[in-house]
Amino acid sequence: MANPIDAETKERIKNLTKSVLGTFTTSYTKNYSIELVKKKEEEAMHKDPGYKLLERSPPEIDLKSGVLKKEGGFRKTWKKRFFVVRYDYKVDYFSDEKAATKPKAKPKGTMSLAGYTVIENIGEAALERLKNLAEKMGVDASSLPSPKKYGEFCFEIHHDRRRSYFIEASNAEEKKEWVEMFKTCCRRAYGLNDHEDEVHVNAFHKSVRDTRWSLGRWGWWSYGGSEEQVLSDVISDEIEWQVMGDIYSKISSGPWAVRSRIRNAVLKTIDGIVGAAVTPAWKAMSSAVKELRPKIEPKVGELAEPLGKTKSEVTEKMKDSTKDTVDKELDSSVKPQLSKLLDIFRDPIREAFDKTKSNFGEKIDSWIETADEKDPVKSFNDLDWYACGWWNLWDAFEIINKLVEPLELLREVFSDIWPWGLVYEARDRFHKLRDNAVFTFQTRVKESIEGGTEAGKELLQKTKSAIMDDFVNDIAIASLHLFLKLVKEIVMGPLNKTLIPAVKSILEPLNDAIPDTLKEIVDISEMFMNLLHAILDGIIEPLWS
What we know:
- By secondary structure, the protein is of the alpha+beta class.
- It has 3 domains: 159 residues, no CATH class; 125 residues, PH-domain like (Roll); 226 residues, no CATH class.
- 66% of the residues lie in helices and 6% in strands.
- It is built from 14 helices and 7 strands.
- A 7-stranded antiparallel sheet has the order 4-3-2-1-7-6-5.
- Helix 8 packs across helix 14.
């Protein structure tokens, strides 16, 4: 069979790769400047959200460890490995526990799971992927081979274009705990190499969105990993849309095994072409914005007054010019659904937050009974482990997990909903609030003792009571913020698909109202998105109260 990637196809892939990178580069350079200015504005106009509990950075302690079996990447044999989940959600694995505890222990491997998903039913998922691929390649699904069978306690940590991991636990309970831990790692792993620079992170994510929108790829899209990996995924996704159909048509005959091997070879070739372009392109972009930053920052203060005035004037014009289009879309597709969304979310959110609060209170009471009264700080390690664990919040999680079924039904109206993604967003909020309560308790106890207050159960109980009051305050704020977040996650996808194209011709003339000196740090599309979020907040927030 002839190579399906001939010279013409290879040139198409190269040109498409170059085009996507060009679009991203323009967007990223501008968004970086905008985000830099935005950060300075937020620092100058800091608004207290009203939370009373203190917030701490995640403690740099290992989150979980234990023995699991892992299937080899090349030799498909199963071996026991000792897994350690680090504070940054990277997962190291060693030959055994002894090897893991050696000074400067070097792992046999490290799993960086940003962009991955955890699959509990391996066979069902593998069959579904085979069927989808067969449909693309024009293969009769009945001729497909049966997927490889795995044991009852196996699960997969999957990525479409990177190495997947197959893991086996020893029993159902162990599988449940590790599946949840790995799901947490997939969601929270930092991904971007330069993840500590808030300006870069926000600019990068916005530029990914803008690039996909420029290609007509609206709605929700899952991605994660290093900057190079994410850019490669964006390009590969576009190659799938524009080129792979023609390639599949060239391998539309022959046994499945042969066609599958050819496809794998094709993907390897594409990955090589894309990777060869992405690596130097990202290096150049990264260097360019780092050189740009010290040039922009000194000017931000000088531009603060004209920038604020320009944004205010343009926003008012934007409100007037887009009002009819926005109102029409909100009236037809959003407002009719809001009461339904409120009915779905209100009780579970409130009940789960209350369960989180009572869970904290019960834990502190039991801890006080066993803590060293003369020096309770020595017993804080037990609270650290409690704060970082998810399994001790399972009662709250089970309440919010029940949202999956009604959210699945809503997909008939909002097709971009990812129910489990919304559920995990909520679960992260409960976990964070509980961690803040623990940290606040520890901090206030320590400060009281250092200030001369006598240690003892009376101090601990008094501190706990005060924090329970603060918990109530923070629940009221957090529950509203969570409701706003979840509703906007649901409705923004469809709004993006319809409103952005609809208002494009209305927004473009507003660029003329921006002085030339500010054009590089003002983005009309971003201003419209901010306006849309503000409008939605004004509609949604009164419903909650």
